[in-house]
Protein 1
Amino acid sequence: MSFVHLHVHTQYSLLDGANKIDPLIAKAKSASMPAIAMTDHGNMFGAVEFFQKASKAGIKPIVGCEVYVAPKSRFDRGGRIDDFEAGGNYHLILLAMNRLGYQNLCRLVTLSYKEGFYYKPRIDKQLLEELNGGLIALSGCLASEVNRNIARGDLGGARTVMEDYRRLFDGRYYVEIQDNHIDEQNVANVELVRLARELSLPLVATNDCHYLEKEDAKAHEVLLCIQTGKTLSDEKRFKFGTDQLFVKDGDEMRAAFPEVPEAIANTLDVAARCDLDLEFGRYQFPVYAPPRGRTLQEHFVAETRAGLEQRLAGMRATEGWSEEKERSYHERLERELAVIEEMKFPGYFLVVADFTRFARSRGIPVGPGRGSAAGSLVAYALGITDLDPLPYNLLFERFLNPERVSMPDIDMDFCYERRDEVIQYVREKYGEECVAQIITFGTLKGKAAIKDVGRVLEFPYQDTDRIAKVYPAAQQGKDVPLEIALEKEPRLQEIRRKGEQEEQLFSFALRLEGLLRHCSKHAAGVVIAERPLIESLPLFVDKDGAVMTQFSYGDVEKIGLIKFD
């Protein structure tokens, strides 16, 4: 009998989860797991990458999230985040069963940032009342409301919580038990099994996976120290107190729960109930409203031809102008118009021309155009670019080609000091709920990993700085991976062999290199949708109040949303 992990943290649980997607999927496949879930802390950052890679490997992806539930209202701001008695948050696992569940999960996660953020992004039971359709709930880890009640000795309170969630998630609530070798969990498991059976609730076994293999546990402790700014020798540092939160195989999970085999079998039942099908490749163009009496295509053609006429008016007086040259412009324009119409991109060009025109009307400096878009006469006619492609024999086919269908990629350069004015114009024209900037993620690179791990291991600053100085410089704009740096630079190898502590430094850095470190706002990426973005993806709000997509630049495009640079 197989098994499915339903509580898994990837590297998108920033500086907390240490599971990179590729090795995670590879291990699930090698263990013959038919499915696996992604349940990162408070976000869905990696949902598209996870979904596509798991699907490609022949493993069913279960998109979920470990949400933070406020004990009262999500609008309440009382208590510290780490003080459950004074108003901290409870953990709850939510898994999307279908498209409705995915959309509700997107809404819940978005609102946790927009309305509930207090130390952490939080929802509440009021939102769960409204948005639980298509979702399966697992009772959660030791930080869940059920387990906090059990830890306080309030078994009646734990029972009430279970009854409350049973009502909310009618037939979709599972009681989660774990074997993490923590005494508090062992006590909780006894009561969880008893209460589940009394209330006729199904049990499900999970492992709260934060890293891939058991031997990764120490490196994960170092990762937590990087997150919290602590050192490994600090006895008061945040730690899990177990080395069991790895991706166990089915045999290991069955051996952990010999008395409740149904908890293993139920993981397969949950996986069977989850059948989300994300749609890729169907573009969702923003709605550009043409003047009354014109279709979008008619307006696009009229605007483009009028724009070309304005450009040609200034050329006709130049020396060497001829009817043949003018004919070449018109023929080129009509050919491009036909391709753009065939590929259904008129709206895209009109949107870009619109906000470019706005910028120029406000005196905001706009670049002349760069990249393959400079090969488009239509872009030149609409004022998107200021470079005439014909004298330079620039090819339109490098920009758009019906035989290689992809979105046009027009990179626009606006003055960085006034770029926000253009973005605000777009929000006002196309709707706040349809426009957002795009998130980007910073990665823990080799040299930075050495510095971070060095601090955690209490290396003197001058020592890690010395190591960083002999680290090979970036090549062709790309950082050199630590493993390659060790091969190329003998001095790094000498330092590594110097002693046990130095060996630890490099060993931990190698394990942690490549993990995501933080998220931030893409410098210029903006997405504009035809309908509220929350229907397609979750949104993130940074500390400055900027609203961003939770999916990265490439993933936004994969689900069909239109991005503008």
Protein 2
Amino acid sequence: MCGIIGFIDKKNILSAKERKQIGRKMLQRIEYRGRDSSGLCCINNIVIGHNRLAIIDTSKKASQPFFNKKKTFVISYNGEIFNHIELRKIIKNKKYQSISDTETLVHAYEEFGNKSFELLRGMFATSLYNIKDDNITLAMDQFGIKPLYYLDTPDWFAWSSEAKIFSLLPNFEILVNEDRFLEYGIFRNIANSDETIFKGIKKLLPWEILTYSTRQDMIKISTYKIKMQPIKNIDKLLHESVYEHLLSDVPIGLQLSGGVDSSLISILASKQLKQKNIHSFSMGLLDSNWNEFKYSRLISSLIKTRHHKIIFTQQEFCKLLPIATYHLDEPVSYPNTIPIMILAKKARKYVKVLLSGEGADEIFGGYLRYSRLIKQKITSNNLLFSNSFCTPKQIRSVINISKKENLSERKSLVKKLNKYTSAYKLSIYDTKTFLPSLLLRQDKMGMASNLENRFPFLDSRLVSSALSLADKDKVTSVETKVLLKKIANKYLPREIVYRKKCGFGLPISDWLKDQNGFGKYLTLFTNPKIKRHYLNYKHISKLITEHLTEKKNNSEILWILINLEIWAKIFIDNEDQKNIWSRL
């Protein structure tokens, strides 16, 4: 797990010394992503950098940027290849200087080129410079677990694990992408598209390979595919995936919420982890209505972990919201992003890696809305808005929306899914439009504390097999995660497996009414120091009044507006994220 940066000075605007200086500044800005070592490689007008969080082979032999033996290409990659030991057996006639997955990836690319990405099981965002062919290759894992942003202007082609570093490039200005306000407002993320909330800054999508030719100044994007034969023994696959996700030369801990997903991963991991004193972590408010400590404590006692119950307050939440925004690079979509950040900071005192149950809801049919939709009968329209938070009408009433906005990428995906069964439609739609934002939150909040999060449910073999299950084995009108719960019932207490799904919610609606707490953020609209041309302040004031007088619960749309404004203050107005809360 690391932070990668790189850029090409197309017009040779800078001297070699200046390029190095900018490269170092970029690495310094995201130094929290990897504090074990930092490396910078400059070849002509190309700069490639890497901050390393050492997990597999912590020696200097595995430091990056990493050259192949012939010095024909150099790689800077972020992630983990969990089947890299297996890959070494099929890569012929190679001598290794390290036991790192980085070197395995280098040799795989030497032998198979872009087809090497089809062989990988893991999470990765890769940048590779082929010196002989003079091109850059960027590649993304199958689920978008590791973020990778890029931009292409007349002056620069650049890429990074975090979008914020592009502001260091001369002649590039950070601007808001107003053309995506409608989608962001409705869904809290921009999905199935390469665009971001930053104008001109794009993101690589799952399964994508981008090749940039420096000679032709041209981008080509392709996709790779993994041919997978679904396996019926899901239980066995789960064990194998957890085993592979334990590959590490540093201590591993458990994100233990007390729900069935994290509990199942935790109990399977505890059976295989060789380290003593396994640490587990759970988060919540002191109020028992807003924590699941009872259940996480039950699992912790069962598997005998050193459990850490972390309690946070509304004031901590408010103070950290802008800081989380800075690390996320985007408006904070989900309130539980901040608790995840707090948990990661605590966990980093004891471990470098955390296992999480993220991904199970999407592939095994775990959301309560799935049961409701199946009962109603799924249409193109209710599938399109199945993971929305607000309606188009609500967003248009408070934000001036570009006429270009029509949700075309999401609609195109819905159309492709028409021929499939109900549960499959829901799983694929969420995997492509909802899950990436959850994974981004996990990556960025973990890396803010120099910690790696891993997701055993997102093993490619397991996902392929889970998606191929019959609807009745995933979700019905009265039950979610049917098969997964049957498996979990072998290992977990029944009260964990079949209790009502909670999710990690927070009392945002109530907090908005607290003028000394989260409600202070409403002054961004009632007494704005900077007025945004795209906001309808009159209607926003009406929504605030309705909420505060309890005529209507407008917490969903007010959450969206608050986070969009915090994001603009940090990235457009260049305010220090550490001071935003204190200055309200």
